[in-house]
Design a protein that fits this description.
By secondary structure, the chain is of the alpha+beta class. Helices cover 58% and strands 12% of the residues.
Length: 262
């Protein structure tokens, strides 16, 4: 839109220059030529401005469509996340320990009871199976994760809360995230560090720093994550400025040096 406005301003400038040139001419033949050029320019300008109006209208329509598409995508992601709220994913389970769906269900029930100290009978498990094809070649030889869908949301919460009992076992329990939420999780961990980011019911939870009273940030879409990152960067900048200012207050020479170096 800014480029279109610059074109429009340039046309106005050319038109003003032609008018000034025609006003300063005394020779009749040259004045006729300038009038002809001015008429042609006015015609082209009118056509251009008409096209410019059409382009602006279409751009506004595209922006509205983009907002609608993003909103619909976020709504679909929320619905898909809700359908996964009773699922957990088990990582680090050897392929030989559980292959078929029945074996995965039995292994999950046994693991919950022995490792997590949570009694969830196999009858309370809806489904359990490996994710993805068997990894028989290549550099990635890790066992495929097992997704477990429990019949009751309460059982899922109990399992997820007690997953800390697996520490040091080589096995990990995570939530079943949509592709969008997984991307948000990885991006948040890249920015805030892995220790300060986790998930809860499919939502990305961020603790910006290690202070006990720090308010947690809950993320469900890319817009919210971008806002959180922007605010964090702004807060860090303000904190550095305050720290720098306090450091120079005790030493006037540092303050003078910083002023002259800028």
């Amino acid at each position: 839109m800014d480029r279109l406005r610059h074109f429009e301003e340039a046309l106005d400038g050319i038109g003003a220059a032609l008018e000034a040139a025609r006003a300063g001419r005394q020779d009749g033949a040259q004045d006729i030529l300038l009038q002809l050029i001015t008429s042609m320019f006015d015609l082209l300008k009118t056509q251009f401005l008409s096209e410019l109006t059409t382009i602006r209208t279409e751009l506004e329509g595209f922006k509205k469509d983009q907002v609608t598409i993003v909103s619909q995508a976020e709504h679909i992601d929320r619905l898909e996340t809700y359908t996964r709220r009773q699922c957990v994913v088990l990582h680090g389970i050897p392929e030989a320990a559980a292959g078929s769906e029945d074996q995965c269900m039995a292994y999950a029930s046994k693991m919950f009871k022995e490792r997590l100290k949570v009694d969830i009978p196999i009858e309370h498990i809806d489904r359990a199976h490996r994710l993805g094809p068997v990894r028989t070649s290549g550099v990635d030889t890790r066992p495929r994760p097992i997704i477990v869908k429990l019949l009751r949301y309460h059982d899922k919460r109990v399992v997820y809360v007690n997953k800390k009992n697996l520490k040091g076992s080589g096995m990990v329990i995570t939530e079943s995230l949509t592709r969008t939420r997984l991307t948000l999780l990885n991006k948040a961990r890249d920015h805030f560090s892995r220790e300060h980011v986790w998930t809860n019911d499919g939502k990305i939870v961020i603790k910006p720093d290690s202070n006990p009273g720090t308010r947690l940030i809950v993320i469900t879409c890319a817009r919210e994550l971008d806002t959180a990152i922007s605010r964090c960067e702004r807060s860090n900048t303000e904190l550095r400025n305050i720290t720098r200012h306090r450091g120079t207050q005790g030493n006037p020479n540092l303050l003078n040096d910083s002023l002259f170096s800028s």
